[in-house]
Amino acid sequence: MAQQVGNTPKSIRRHGEHDVEIVWADGHTSLYPARYLRLNCRCAVCVDEVSGVPLLDPASVPEDVHPVSLQLVGRYAVQPIFSDGHGTGIFSFDHLRAICPCPDCQGRA
């Protein structure tokens, strides 16, 4: 499946201590609180691979969780390492754009 052009980031960076900012090729800027990203992880530790049922207990994610590092995965995703030690999640750019928490994007959902 091809990635949509608007879902290609121009830049990905930490924004402050607790946020991740992505500026997209279409000019949109997404600001993701780290805990929001952590709770939206779809790795096999966080979501059952077969049923899709969430396994992650939100109460187990610290309120002050933050990204320690951000690693690009090819040309399609980013892998954050979080301060709670979690680092197995790979967030595709398509998924990140789909979960953009800004009011404009949430209004389209």
TL;DR of this structure?
This protein is of the alpha+beta class and 109 residues long.
Explain what this protein looks like in three dimensions.
The protein has three helices and six strands. With 109 residues, the protein is of the alpha+beta class. The protein has one domain (5-108): NE0471 N-terminal domain-like, CATH 3.30.2020. A hairpin with an 8-residue loop joins strand 5 (77-82) and strand 6 (91-92). The longest helix has 6 residues, at 34-39. It is globular and about 35 Å long. 17% of the residues are buried. The model has no long low-confidence stretch (mean pLDDT 94).
Brief descriptors of the model:
NE0471 N-terminal domain-like; 109 residues; 30% strand; alpha+beta
CATH class: Alpha Beta
Task: Give the percentage of residues in beta strands.
Answer: 25-35%
String of helices and strands:
EEEHEEEHH
Order of strands across the widest beta sheet?
1-2-3
Structural class computed from helices and strand pairing: alpha+beta
